[in-house]
Amino acid sequence: MNGADARGWRIALLPDALVNPRDASRAALPDVLGILEAAGYGVLQLPPAGDEGPLLAVIADQVAEYAHHGYAVAAVGVLGEPGGGLHWRRLASLLQHRGVALPPRHLVRAQADTAAEGGKLAAFLADYDLPVEEQRRWRV
Amino acid sequence: MTHAEPNEGGMEPGVNQDARRRVALIANCLLNQNAKVCEGAHYRGVVSPVVQALRSRGYELQQLPCPELAFAGARRWWAVYEQYDTPAYRAHCRRLAQAIAPRIEQYLRRGDEVILIGLDGSPSTGVRFTSSKPDWGGRPNRPDDDWDIVPGRGIWIEELEAELQRRGLPSVPATGWALDMGRFDEAGSRWDLEEFLDSREAAARPDKDPAES
Predict the structure, then answer these.
(1) CATH class of the A10-138 domain in this structure
(2) Residue B13 belongs to some domain of the structure
(3) Does any domain span residue B199?
(4) CB under 8 Å, gap of 24 or more: what pairs does A16-19 form?
């Protein structure tokens, strides 16, 4: 990849509830989108439960493409939501059909100390990447 | 699928205006620059000025799928409008449009204010401008800046709008973040986007002095 390109090579799957927290939950959650932005992650937004339809398969195609070409894909969900709000079971099946394992997942706790939760998420994001050999293979 | 006919604004009769939300449909790469073609990423991940401008005005974000990544892959060559203007690519874009359209339809029939922020200069996601060079093709060895920026939609936006029209939905006000215009000017792009958003707010303001109109 040319030096003029700024991409961060890391992407997080994110439930709609964390991209667009409702007023009631905004104060109860860290600003996950802001934390991802600061950590240099791109975001793939997942639809809310019940609205996923064929959109989840479209997103799985994208995840597979990234996973096969040197990008680190993680998932950030909400503790207590079914599947973390990430359609985890369906996603597992869709990714398996595309030859890709489920990405590492971090769950944010709502109604907790938002600064502490934000710190834990930032640490998870900072620690995660592909092994150096994989990075060298693709990110040139 | 059958639907109640929306009124002039695309809204279901009896929708509560107070619950009206603001939703911005945004190009995939505005939340994820990793979707860009090689050398096209100007940010590590999220395009912060766009997200900031939208969130500060109360817009919810709805990311659109990236048609190029799923079709031609993460390591695709650069391309112009004419190269993507094929029956197969249009069919792919229609499939993606059919996947995301139910979400958009839900917003519009609920009476939400919906806008679209694409990527000006893109062969797929351009809104006001797209890229053109009818003679591009073959061995990818074109010199720098050997393409034209021309007024018009990209293929993906054309197909998305066609899908919304097929569903009887009103057109969505749209603009583009000028990332693919050759030389990217962040300050100019920000000014342009904010002007578009502020003009939407001014148009929607209910307390406008009748004497002004």
Answers:
(1) alpha beta
(2) no
(3) yes
(4) A16/A45, A16/A46, A16/A47, A16/A48, A16/A85, A17/A48, A17/A78, A17/A81, A17/A85, A18/A76, A18/A77, A18/A78, A18/A85, A18/A108, A19/A43, A19/A45, A19/B31, A19/B60, A19/B61, A19/B63
Q: Give the minimum alpha-carbon distance from A88 to chain B in angstroms, rounded to a whole number.
A: 19
What are the tens digits of pLDDT across the range B127-185? 999 999 999 998 888 777 788 999 999 999 999 999 999 999 999 999 999 988 888 88
CATH of the domain at B186: 3.40.50
Give per-residue pLDDT as tens, B61-93.
999 999 999 899 999 999 999 999 999 999 999
- Tell me the shortest Cα–Cα distance from B184 to chain A, in angstroms: 12
Rounded to the nearest 10 degrees, the angle between the axes of helix B87-110 and helix A55-67 is: 130
Number of compact structural domains in chain B:
1
Cβ A8–B100 below 8 Å, yes or no? no
**Distance from C-alpha of A48 to C-alpha of A102, rounded to nearest angstrom:** 19
Would B51 be classed as within a structural domain? yes
Structural domain of residue B70, as residue ranges?
22-137+144-203
The pLDDT of residue B10 is above 60: no
Mutation site for B-interface testing, chosen from A9, A13, A18, A58 by largest number of B Cβ within 10 Å: A58
Domain ranges of chain A: 10-138
Q: Is residue B26 part of a domain?
A: yes
Residues B93 and B68: their CA atoms lie apart, in Å, by 9
In single-letter form, the type of residue at position B196 comes to F
- β-strand pairing of B129-132 with B148-151: antiparallel
| The pairing of beta strand B148-151 with beta strand A105-108 | unpaired
Predicted ipTM? 0.94
Of the residues A1, A33, A43, A52, the best mutation for testing chain B's interface (the one with the most B CB atoms within 10 Å of its CB) is A43
CB within 8 Å: B103 and A10: no
